[in-house]
Write a structure and sequence with these properties.
Layout: E1 11-14, E2 17-23, E3 26-27, E4 34-35, H1 40-57, E5 65-72, H2 78-89, E6 95-100, E7 110-117
Parallel strand pairs: 5-6
Antiparallel strand pairs: 1-2, 2-7, 3-4, 5-7
Helix pairs in contact: 1-2
Length: 123
């Protein structure tokens, strides 16, 4: 997980809702955040890992996620993303939107944002 690359918060709480800003396949490096190399699958896995880190930082996991929005630089990666997504989320099926976009920050191939629900009393 690396620091945001813009003027935004990685997460925001609104009552029992946690909103996680879109995550791309960034990893910390000595020179600052860097997009992982290796193509779509590597970036998608890193983006999902980054979301998991944000959730864990709030005492949550994928089971708390109620909505995901996925942005793909190339809709041809739809099938590959579904495979990776299934591995990450297991049997949990939050609502999801997936759209193809003209471009993503830092030339990323995928960006993932989530909304999660925490029961009252969760950290």
């Amino acid at each position: 997980m690396s620091e945001p690359v813009g003027p935004y918060s990685p997460t925001m709480r609104a009552g029992n809702l946690l909103v996680c800003s879109g995550q791309i396949g960034l990893r910390s490096s000595p020179d600052g955040p860097a997009l992982v190399r290796g193509g779509f699958r590597v970036q998608a896995c890193q983006a999902l890992d980054n979301v998991a880190v944000l959730l864990a930082g709030q005492g949550l996991d994928w089971g708390h996620v109620v909505k995901t929005t996925v942005y793909l630089a190339d809709v041809a990666d739809f099938g590959a993303f579904n495979e990776i997504y299934l591995e990450a989320l297991g049997s949990h099926r939050p609502a999801r939107s997936l759209v193809a976009v003209a471009g993503l920050p830092m030339g990323a191939l995928v960006e993932i944002e989530v909304w999660a629900y925490a029961e009252t009393g969760s950290s």
